[in-house]
Write a structure and sequence with these properties.
Elements (H helix, E strand, L loop, with lengths): L1 H68 L3 H19 L5 H20 L2 E3 L11 E7 L10 E6 L2 E3 L2 E4 L1 E6 L1
Parallel strand pairs: 2-6
Antiparallel strand pairs: 1-4, 3-6, 4-5
Main location: cytoplasm
Pfam family, one: GrpE
Family: Belongs to the GrpE family.
């Protein structure tokens, strides 16, 4: 019997060893799964941070490009009243030819400088466009002048690339 007891003890030890190995394997698998889950979480956080950095860089580049593209906006807004005054001065009757020629040269140089910066006059003939024109008065439409067309321009409008600096002030047939 003593051999049977020894065999049983050996079997119990083997079973205990197998249980210990299974417990160790389960613990190792659990630790591995937990480590993999943490690694996935860190990778996800890294990818989000990387995407956010790319978005910040893209927005900064777009902002820098817009600042460069519209850098002369404030200067143009300050110069436009002077250009308006030159046009009014040229409309005065009784100017000598020399004075008129001098005023025209100044006006042309201002217009040329504005064009070089991307500033253009808004066309104010034809149909009224509420995005480009500001109606300050209306006139009744007739057979020659259909509704929603521009009758008269009080003040020229200007735009810088695609941005309106000042809408054209117009009289519209209604």
């Amino acid at each position: 019997m003593s051999e049977d007891i020894k065999n049983e003890e050996v079997v119990k030890e083997v079973e205990t060893a197998e249980e210990v190995e299974e417990t160790i394997e389960t613990a190792e698998k659990s630790e591995l799964e937990e480590a993999n889950a943490r690694a996935d979480e860190f990778e996800n956080k890294y990818l989000r941070a990387h995407a956010e950095m790319q978005n910040i860089q893209r927005r900064a580049n777009e902002e820098r490009q817009n600042l460069q593209r519209y850098r002369s906006q404030d200067l143009a807004k300050a110069i436009l009243p002077s250009l308006d005054n030159l046009e009014r001065a040229l409309a005065v009757e009784g100017l000598t030819d020399d004075v008129k020629k001098g005023l025209e040269m100044v006006q042309e140089s201002l217009i040329h400088a504005l064009k070089e910066e991307g500033i253009e006059e808004i066309a104010a003939d034809g149909d009224f466009d509420h995005n480009l024109h500001m109606a300050i008065q209306t006139m009744p439409a007739d057979d020659e002048h259909p509704a929603d067309t521009i009758a008269q321009v009080f003040q020229k409008g200007y735009k810088l690339h695609d941005r309106i600096l000042r809408p054209a002030m117009v009289v519209v047939y209604n």
